[in-house]
Hints:
By secondary structure, the chain is α/β, with parallel strands linked by helices. The protein folds into 4 domains: 56 residues, no CATH class; 199 residues, TIM Barrel (Alpha-Beta Barrel); 196 residues, Rossmann fold; 131 residues, Immunoglobulins (Immunoglobulin-like). It is built from 19 helices and 30 strands. A 6-stranded mixed β-sheet has the order 9-16-15-14-10-13, covered by helices on one side. The protein is globular and about 75 Å long. The relative contact order is 0.12. The N terminus is likely disordered. It catalyses: Hydrolysis of terminal, non-reducing beta-D-glucosyl residues with release of beta-D-glucose.
Amino acid sequence: MVHLFVHALLLLVGSSLAIAQRPEIPDDIPLDKGTRDYLESLPPDELAAVLEVYQEAFAGQVPAPPELITQQELSLYGKSPAVYPSPLAKGTGTWADAYAHVKALVNQMTNEEKANTTSLSDSGVPAIPRLGFPGLRLHDGPNGLNALEEVTAYASGITVGASWNKDLAHARGQISNLLGPTIGPLGRTVAGGRNWESFSVDPYLCGQMGAKTVLGIQENVIATAKHFVLNEQETDRNPSMFGFSNASVSSNIDDKTMHEYYLWPFQDAVKAGVGSVMCSYQRVNGSHSCQNSWTQNGLLKTELGFQGILTSWFKFAQFDPANPLGLPKNISKAHEGSSSIDPSPEAKYIIRQGAVEGAVLVKNVNNTLPLKKPKILSLFGYDAHTPLVNSPTGANSKYSIGYQSVNRTKVQVQGLFVGVGEYPSAATLGTLVGGGGSSSVTPQYINSPFDAFQQRAYEDGTFLYWDFNSEDPSYSESDACLVFINEFASEIVDRVSLADQYSDNLVMNTIVSIHNAGVRLVDRWIDHPNVTAVIFAHLPGQDAGPALVDIMYGEQAPSGKLPYTVAKNESDYSEELLWPVRPDNSLNYYTHADFTEGSYIDYCRFDALNIEPRFEFGFGLTYTTFNYSDLEVCHTEANSSFYSPPGEVMEDGLKSLWDVVAIVTVRVLNTGEVTASEIPQLYVGIPGAPIKQLRGFEKIPLHPKEGKSVSFPLTRRDLSLWDTKSQSWYLERGEYKLYVGSSSRDIRLTGSLTF
């Protein structure tokens, strides 16, 4: 891995520096011996290139050597409570048939066959023909098969989350091969490098989409819910990353916040029957996640009743006892359900529809969109066309991504095995269809916006202008000017900015499309009178261009909603939640991320502090209007006692948590002239909790003048809080306020429940 890292740096940075003498490797960079020896073997010019990026990419992040750690500092760790022994799986419920089948199979195996089956390798699990066991082919890929050529690039997790379409999440799971779903990180760190892999910062939305994905995947192979748990930043997530001897960051959290926020989507995945859960790299309350008995034995296996496979990725940390947790051998690849990479007709539909439904229209002045056969159309921006290189040996292959230099400054260097310098004058080169890291894929094709708009121009007889190189392009007298920009993010590194000046300067007289990997601030230009329409297209997969044509020409009305809040200023998120925690001067060997904000993240924080967002959570425009009416709230006959009634712990937690205690019904009418989908959202105000929390949503297509009623069942779990003293869920006495609307702030109807 070290060699891959260094070679990647050389490839991206180059080795043409003129060096008078051999540079010295600084002593204050605590490299391990293998890395230091390898660097010493490099020619002077190559060594200089590597050291330049090493020092710039990790400036201010170099940790202190282990011998400088004091006993006082060590005492900060290991605070996670011990929960032993590891509970044995019962093999009951929906697992009964699987356990019985496996037991019968294992009883027929020889010792050699058992050893071969449990000793995983990159080639997979060998078949046992005499017993009819076909074996397993294994491969990595949280967003599709990575490190292979000509695979399918589907819409990313955040794009599917922006669709708010549970059926789409299920269908994507059915036809894609994922080491997933990713339901952690949720997105506590706004600039988090992997937020794009997950569905939403909201645990309810993330849990619903994750559960549907699990059900889809497991129609073919085992799904793996990850990363369990609190993997909320990339910075310092890994022990000994890149040869440094830094320890993993510790995500320090209280019991209440863990249960009410971060554990939520994993409980939904377990309820859906997920067969595997992957633990995360970082620490939880001082103990490594993959050796944390509280999170694994106490929460996952005991409270949630999980009976499947708990796995790490590549390795455990080199300290802390792992065996008492009952972890299997380390797994480095995902189950691959098929050897075919050719998309079926069903898959082709999901590829395109995922991109369409995950795009969010956030501005549309005077019905600028949809376009109506413009006579002249101008296209600008570096995201409009395909990358200049896409070959097995090119810069866009596998784990790396190409960049273009702007203003003749240094290019940004970013990818799975490389660091990132803070160079805001660098832009991702070509149409951005996905993020970086282990979730990146190399698609068999990329249908860019330029490709798709050329085809549409041909069909409509539209004259097309374009300029993808100028920093300040001149705008012709066109009927419409479209600008395509993007915002990249990757595993290993967190983002360094939520905007960039180069892209912002391009959009002053246009319709703007942004392929964004997460929150993208737009306040530098969003109110400019010449910016008439804006689409957050997220990371759409390989059919990026046709999806935008469908939306901009009205073939389909936009139906996406934001799965996060877009602020007016970075400071609105707070410094603690905006950027990852980095080592400080006193405890820079042990980094601590203290989750002191509790559940007040994203829209819950904005509501509590009365901060006006630019675009609120759940917001999205379309080409019609909707009316809400006939709100009804009905108590059921379920037990609504103060504390959850004791009972059996199923494979999804205490059985009584899933009792439906109330049903909320609302009617939605399409009052416009265009067929479109609306997403009515139910928010609940639990006494003593955030003002509003999402507890229901449905995506409903409606023809003009058509209306439908939607029901939201509310379970005891949906309305409960966690009591840390009794270690149980309870219903708060008093009034529960109910809010139904088109977004977290566009509330159309209100009601209440009383317990």
